[in-house]
């Protein structure tokens, strides 16, 4: 029950931050500048890269070595599986990105609104898994304050990046012609999968404990797929590529400091 409450709190926090980011549609005009979008996406990408490395891959290697296994094997294997999982979802689930009019996934008659939200919802899955797995790992090391501190750092980092990510979802929807209220609600809806998948991990924690290194690396691979496939390319569209690069660096630095300071 204790681990359930921790995950509920952690995933609830990252969902709240997504909602707060989505609320930016009430404060900006319909034609929001591309520069702001670039900063939001770049910063979110930097945090996700850092979180994948320091919050997921490093603990995966340490956990494997603590079990007497070869550290790099589950880290590499889980990472590849995470990438393949997101690649498969990208190919199967119908979705549409705000910056593109090209529909991806299987052919579908779904409305444009549904496809736009589906794109972001799809990529929020690994974030919920990451937070859930981190607290499940901490629960497996009952009494280890450092493990819970590390999980909280990861939840805090992902929550921080969810603010600009939520804005990066809702603001393009506003530009698509939706009302501010509907853009906000759809932005919030895209983040619901995070607590769902985070809590799902807790429910099956007893069964997945032996595979924890693989699953941590799996979440890392899935998150980095999102970064490379979507966030970084979109952060470098247009004439503000240097700003996007600096935003990525800033996000990486913030998450690294959080992990070291709290972990």
Give the helix/strand layout.
Layout: H1 2-22, H2 34-66, H3 72-92, H4 112-140, H5 145-175, H6 180-190, H7 193-203, H8 205-208, H9 212-235, H10 241-262
Helix pairs in contact: 1-4, 1-5, 1-6, 1-7, 2-3, 2-5, 2-9, 2-10, 3-9, 4-5, 4-6, 4-7, 4-9, 5-6, 5-10
Features:
0% strand, 263 residues, mainly alpha
In short:
With 263 residues, the protein is mainly alpha-helical. The chain has 10 helices and no strands.
What does this structure look like?
- The protein has 263 residues and is mainly α.
- It has one domain.
- Helix content is 79%, strand content 0%.
- The protein is built from ten helices and no strands.
- The protein has helices spanning 2-22, 34-66, 72-92, 112-140, 145-175, 180-190, 193-203, 205-208, 212-235, 241-262.
- Helix 1 (2-22) packs antiparallel against helix 6 (180-190).
The share of residues in extended strands comes to under 5%
Q: Number of domains in the coordinates?
A: 1
Structural classification: mainly alpha
Order of helices and strands: HHHHHHHHHH
Distance between the termini: 23 Å
Secondary structure tally, helices: 10
Report the mean per-residue pLDDT as an integer. 82
Q: Segments where pLDDT lies below 50 for 5+ residues?
A: none
Largest sheet: none
General shape = globular
């Amino acid at each position: 029950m204790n681990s359930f409450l921790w995950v509920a709190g952690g995933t609830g926090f990252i969902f709240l931050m997504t909602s707060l980011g989505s609320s930016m549609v009430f404060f900006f005009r319909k034609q929001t500048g591309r520069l702001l979008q670039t900063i939001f996406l770049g910063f979110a990408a930097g945090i996700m890269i850092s979180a994948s490395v320091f919050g997921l891959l490093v603990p995966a290697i340490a956990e494997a070595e603590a079990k007497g296994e070869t550290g790099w094997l589950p880290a590499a294997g889980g990472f590849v599986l995470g990438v393949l999982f997101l690649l498969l979802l990208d190919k199967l689930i119908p979705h549409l990105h705000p910056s593109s009019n090209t529909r991806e996934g299987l052919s579908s008659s779904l409305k444009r609104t549904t496809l736009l939200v589906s794109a972001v919802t799809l990529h929020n899955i690994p974030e919920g898994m990451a937070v859930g797995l981190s607290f499940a790992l901490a629960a497996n090391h009952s009494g280890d304050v450092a493990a819970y501190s590390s999980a909280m750092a990861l939840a805090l980092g992902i929550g921080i990046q969810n603010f600009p990510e939520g804005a990066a979802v809702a603001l393009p929807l506003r530009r698509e012609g939706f009302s501010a209220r509907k853009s906000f609600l759809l932005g919030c809806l895209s983040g619901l999968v995070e607590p769902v998948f985070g809590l799902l991990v807790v429910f099956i924690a007893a069964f997945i404990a032996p595979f924890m290194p693989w699953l941590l690396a799996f979440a890392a691979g899935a998150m980095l797929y999102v970064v490379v496939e979507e966030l970084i390319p979109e952060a470098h569209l247009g004439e503000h590529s240097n700003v996007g690069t600096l935003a990525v660096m800033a996000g990486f630095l913030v998450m690294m400091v959080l992990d070291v300071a709290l972990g």
